[in-house]
Amino acid sequence: xxxxxxxxxxxxxxxxxxxxxxxxxxxxxxxxxxxxxxxxxxxxxxxxxxxxxxxxxxxxxxxxxxxxxxxxxxxxxxxxxxxxxxxxxxxxxxxxxxxxxxxxxxxxxxxxxxxxxxxxxxxxxxxxxxxxxxxxxxxxxxxxxxxxxxxxxxxxxxxxxxxxxxxxxxxxxxxxxxxxxxxxxxxxxxxxxxxxxxxxxxxxxxxxxxxxxxxxxxxxxxxxxxxxxxxxxxxxxxxxxxxxxxxxxxxxxxxxxxxxxxxxxxxxxxxxxxxxxxxxxxxxxxxxxxxxxxxxxxxxxxxxxxxxxxxxxxxxxxxxxxxxxxxxxxxxxxxxxxxxxxxxx
Length: 345
Known about the structure:
Layout: E1 45-47, E2 54-56, H1 90-97, H2 104-121, H3 141-157, E3 161-162, H4 192-206, E4 213-218, E5 222-227, E6 236-239, E7 243-246, E8 259-262, E9 271-274, E10 278-279, E11 286-287, E12 301-308, E13 311-318, E14 329-330
């Protein structure tokens, strides 16, 4: 029988009372999950650092795919159960997302990119080469503010700063390490037309024109993303962003949202995106359950890695038409087939 996982609580200061037992001295051999009543699979039993009750990581809602670092509290003991909505105030939202006043040159560039797309759309295209589409923002400015506020709520609740670009932090992988030429087996190059579409999406977001998406909190799935209007197949949803680090530095990381950026023949040069400190809406798009019948039917987004000007970038793209009100899902195991999804809803 596997040994019971140690408590997540950090070591306490030396106790003055000799009768107090340390975490290692306490006996949890008869601990059972408060949800299913079973004591089986003890390595996946998480112990609340306040009430000492046990919970299987896969019995929790939302499911925990990894043992959290530091202290962990069950829903009854948590002091963060009440979600605080981000204020629906334009100035606060503009400051939070650092939305810029659109300059004349930016407006000209956006207009030119849209004209090019319109001109190119009348051309006959091969079925083998379908172009990516820019997202279509909601026309109502108040609706866009509500969408941005929903993302700000989720980011604030998870202690994450907003970023819409890959970030390179001292002590992690430098930008020079992000070299698409090192990809094992090669990486597809983003075409000129698609690169312009991606640039258009970025420019629109900088001036407050956002994808028509809401982040909502579901008691079973946690934060999840929902379409606020219909989205066409092959529409760019967002880029997957966060801090770039070497995979070797994160092999024992408990984060549940890391994304492969670069997979090389030399494992020491492989890179991952870590969105736990800086991210955008991509962090809250959930994955499908690869282990149940019909799990793949929920998938409406695909994750694709591209070579963009010599660097690796990860895009989330609509894989079919998405209806208003439909939640977004993609396959977390598109490349490595290693992510544990058997307990996903």
